[in-house]
Design a protein that fits this description.
With 326 residues, this protein is an alpha/beta fold. 40% of the residues lie in helices and 17% in strands. The chain has a domain at 10-181 and 225-251 and 294-306: Rossmann fold (3-Layer(aba) Sandwich), CATH 3.40.50. It has twelve helices and 14 strands. The strands form four sheets. The chain has a seven-stranded parallel sheet, sandwiched between helices.
């Protein structure tokens, strides 16, 4: 039997109590690692997301805080660490409303993480980027060579993060894999906050039997990937022999918002009214209308291929909501 590459490793998961991060933690615990340390300031992360993982004695929360802006505390967390996952970030609409803080967290904070990786001789860093770097599609599906057509603050911070990863790799030889996520959905995603995603918003409308509003004619199309698949992509990136690169994490399957609404209504049996409305000028600037990712490079070079279709993932999410969300 081939030896697991993560055997006896100590792994730091920055943002490990968050949506995707909590699933990365649970995926890591399937391997014979020595320890997973969760570094999180719990601004967006939640203890409930990692409660089950913490029942494993190999999983702990870093006890001295968990903000990537606190350089001395971050440095302490890196002591004796083999591998790092960096998932901490302010989200798209957060960045829109608070661009200065977005710079401090997503850009300066990422620099702090990279600097600590070099200082502590981390063997590999997995950086959570985003398909937001691409902006609206100039061609479909979007390969990793698609131009950076982003226009919003969030995408700008991820472009900057990728550029710094490249510079640290070139200057110091730091192994880095960056993952450009499509629209990730699933359990542990914030279901109620103002900055939540399109699927939680629709499911909340189903629960309250409120009208579902769709911008434009609903033809805008995206690539939706279930969170367990996104987490597996992180593990694939870590254990692969690929030392550096940026990869799409998506399905390559195009789904329009109109199709998404109809699928959710069919799966739940709901009869919500659907109301189409024009984009506001702000929304028209902020949101992309078409983004579907090519999954080919990730499958070829880091061995990642999605498992869950949109329908299968939605079924799992709907069942989870019945049990876990009040």
């Amino acid at each position: 039997m081939e030896k697991d590459k993560l055997e006896n490793a100590r792994i730091l998961v920055i943002g490990g109590a968050g949506f995707i991060g909590s699933f990365v933690v649970s995926e890591l615990l399937k391997h014979p690692i020595r320890e997973v340390i969760i570094y999180d300031n719990f601004t967006r992360g939640k203890f409930e997301n990692i409660k089950a993982s913490l029942e494993d004695p190999r999983c702990v929360i870093f006890p001295y805080g968990g903000d990537i802006r606190d350089i001395d505390i971050l440095d302490k967390a890196f002591e004796g660490i083999d591998y790092v996952f960096h998932l901490a970030a302010m989200w798209l609409l957060h960045c829109k409303d608070f661009p200065r803080t977005a710079f401090e967290v997503n850009i300066a904070g990422t620099f702090n993480v990279l600097e600590a990786c070099v200082k502590h001789k981390v063997k590999k860093l997995i950086f959570s980027s985003s398909a937001s770097v691409y902006g609206d599609a100039l061609e479909t599906p979007m390969t990793e060579n698609h131009p950076f057509n982003n226009k919003n603050f969030y995408g700008a911070t991820k472009i900057a993060g990728e550029a710094m990863c490249t510079a640290f790799n070139d200057r110091y030889g730091l192994p880095v894999i960056g993952l450009r996520y499509a629209n990730v959905f699933g359990p542990n995603q914030d279901q109620k906050a103002a900055y939540t995603g399109v699927i939680p918003i629709m499911l909340n409308k189903v629960e309250t039997n409120e009208p579902i509003y769709i911008n434009g004619d609903g033809s805008q199309a995206y690539d939706f990937i279930y969170v367990e698949d996104a987490a597996r992509a992180n593990i694939c990136a870590l254990i692969s022999d690929t030392p550096f690169g940026f990869y799409n994490v998506g399905t390559g399957v195009q789904t329009s918002i109109k199709e998404l609404v109809n699928l959710i209504l069919n799966l739940t049996g709901a009869k919500n009214e659907i109301i189409y409305k024009p984009y506001s000028p702000d929304d028209a600037r902020q949101f992309v209308k078409n983004r579907v990712l090519s999954p080919e490079k990730a499958e070829k070079e880091i061995g990642f291929k999605y498992k869950y279709t949109l329908e299968a993932g939605l079924k799992k999410l709907i069942e989870w909501k019945k049990i876990n969300v009040l």
